[in-house]
Amino acid sequence: MTLPMVAAPDDDLVARLRAGDRQAVEQAYVAHHAAIRAFARRLVGEPSTAEDLVHDTFVALPRAIRGFRGEASLRSFLVGVAVNHAKRHIRTAVRRRRATEKLAAQQELMPSTIDATDILARKRLADRLSAALDELPLEQRVVFVLCEAEQRTSVEVAAIVGAPEGTVRTRLFHAKRKLREMLEAAEDAR
Amino acid sequence: MTVDALIDAIRAADGDAGDGPAAGDAELATATRLRVMRSLESRAGGRHQLIGFATAIAILLGGTVSWALATGEIAALWRPAPEPRPAAPAVAPPPSRRRPVSSPRQVPPAPPPEEMSVDPRPAQLPRPEPPEASPPAPPPVVAPRPPRRAAPTVEVLYRRAHELHFHGGDPAAALVAWDAYLAAEPDGRFSIEARYNRALMLVRLGRYAEARAALVPYARGEVMPAGYRQAEAEQLVERLGHYDGSQ
Question: How far is CA B46 from each of CA A20, B39, B49, B52, rounded to the nearest angstrom?
């Protein structure tokens, strides 16, 4: 079966999703999975857990679509569905990351495993980024990723998370302040 | 590292922050797509199973209710429980021949109402005196329904006999029903009442000798609880006196 790689107009797709058409879910996946995957990875910070979040988002779509009012695009709506399912996955990712950190700390004590290549440097940076985000509450983390990493407007983010725009700005402010404090403390510790 | 540097790093972390699939993601995306479709299919299957199960339950329930309505079992469930047995008199009569011990947890059944005391054929027997000496009948107290037991058949038999006795209008059928209950539970919770009521049905059917023989132990206060229906039984035995075996 060949699926069209171009997204059908949202209205038609939404109508089919509401009618319980499973092919419509597949079509929505083809049209939007990359955006949802990118958001999931930024939010969760771990590819395998992010993939689980993508899976859950599209599996939940036939039921979640009942709440779609058409005020935002279907893609934004899907991001909102992903946000609603993110909590459990973030918790899983944090646990995995901490276990990996412990293992990495043990390995770094062994001279034979020390590697100064770019790959390791990038991995360490990614770990630091994720560890910093892990310290934020879920609401602040979601808003930070949507506003700063995905560069969405506060109006759009407000529609995605279902909160007033002012609340979104406040969450972003607190998230940035907390991250700044953490980064300064990390610099001081060196 | 500043927050801005952190933000830049996050944007760059997953393939230049683009929404298009990064290299190597195509396989992952396909695998996840298949996983999503499998999950949706299994959910739909689970929903169908649930609907099938609910339908089966509904059919079973409907069938049971229909059967209960057709056989009258459901009406027996809604009928009030028998009234509690009247209190024993202060003076204890001679010991009983049957049922010396009554479990305190058992709920006593209702004695037949006063109006059900048998008037044995006015044309042939003198009318009984109005029960002036006997204490007034206790107000009808609906006893709590006895707890359901493992074998409800006996209880159903009692309820059926009770229904025929008080509402059936057919003494022969009531007698058969009392016999059925007593055959199933000769020394059961309600056997004293059942035997008394059976004797009343015998009176109504004109089987006076049998009725008298059945009522004598009650008239003598030889059944437990002591004095159960003794005064009424004495009156009946007295009026049935000349039917002591030869009808």
Answer: 15, 10, 5, 10
pLDDT in tens, A45-92: 888 889 999 999 999 999 999 989 888 899 999 999 999 999 889 888
Q: How many CB atoms lie within 10 A of CB A98?
A: 12
Which residues in chain B are closer than 8 Å to A176, comparing Cβ atoms?
Answer: 3
Which DSSP category does B165 fall into? Answer: I
- Check A183 against B13: CB less than 8 A apart: no
pTM: 0.50
Distance CA A165, CA A101 (A): 36
Q: Are A176 and A136 in contact (CB under 8 A)?
A: no
Polymer length in residues for chain A: 190
* Residues of chain B that touch chain A, judged by Cβ-Cβ distance less than 8 Å: 1-3, 6-7, 9-11, 13-15, 17-21, 25, 28-29, 32-33, 35-37, 39-41, 43-44
Interface predicted TM-score of the whole assembly (ipTM), two decimals: 0.76
Half-sphere exposure of B92 (CA within 13 A, CB side): 6
Chain A interface, Cβ < 8 Å to B: 22, 25-26, 29-30, 33-35, 37-38, 41-42, 47, 51, 54-55, 58-59, 62, 125-126, 128-129, 132, 145, 148-151, 176, 179-180, 183, 186-187
- Angstrom distance (rounded) from CA B208 to CA B202: 7
Asked if B6 lies within 8 A of A41 by C-beta distance, the reply is: no
